[in-house]
């Protein structure tokens, strides 16, 4: 992207955020800094929980997976099956059972943390 286009986007984003009432969101996004899971205890704990949840899900152990996550109304899961992310109450008991059956013969899998960001009480883990 050219410098002039990047500058335009950088100048436009705050104006859009102000018009849309998103100043706190934009400020939080700019305040998020890379976090080191080796030295940040909150990020380290969350990474460990995400790892254990991932292992449980890949084995089809939905009950154990759900023990590691907090499902709130704004809970969002990007399905490994593709399609739109699913949120909140779309995850019924029947849906969780279906997910467990799909993965029940899962093989060993790993959770590889690519990057972690932390800002205030928000942590973002990027993994693959």
Model description:
The chain has 128 residues and is of the alpha+beta class. The chain folds into 2 domains: 1-31, no CATH class; 33-127, no CATH class. It is 49% helix and 15% strand. The chain has 5 helices and 5 strands; from the N terminus they run H-H-E-H-H-E-E-H-E-E. The strands form 2 sheets. A 3-stranded antiparallel β-sheet has the order 1-4-5, with helices on both faces. A hairpin with a 2-residue loop joins strand 4 and strand 5 (122-127). Helix 3 (41-58) runs antiparallel to helix 4 (62-68). The longest helix is centred in the N-terminal third of the chain and has 18 residues, at 3-20. The protein is globular and about 40 Å long. It starts with a helix and ends with a strand.
Radius of gyration: 18 Å
Distance between the termini: 26 Å
- Count of strand segments: 5
From the helix content, strand content and strand pairing, which structural class follows? alpha+beta
């Amino acid at each position: 992207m050219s410098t002039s286009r990047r500058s335009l986007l950088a100048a436009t984003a705050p104006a859009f955020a102000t018009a849309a009432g998103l100043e706190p969101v934009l400020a939080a996004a700019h305040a998020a800094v890379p976090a080191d899971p080796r030295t940040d205890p909150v990020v380290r704990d969350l990474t460990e929980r995400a790892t254990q949840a991932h292992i449980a899900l890949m084995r089809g152990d939905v009950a154990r997976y759900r023990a590691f996550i907090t499902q709130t109304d704004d809970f969002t899961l990007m399905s490994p099956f593709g399609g739109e992310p699913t949120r909140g109450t779309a995850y019924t008991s029947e849906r969780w059972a279906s997910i467990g059956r799909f993965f029940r013969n899962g093989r060993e899998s790993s959770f590889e943390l690519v990057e972690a960001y932390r800002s205030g009480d928000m942590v973002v883990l990027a993994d693959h």
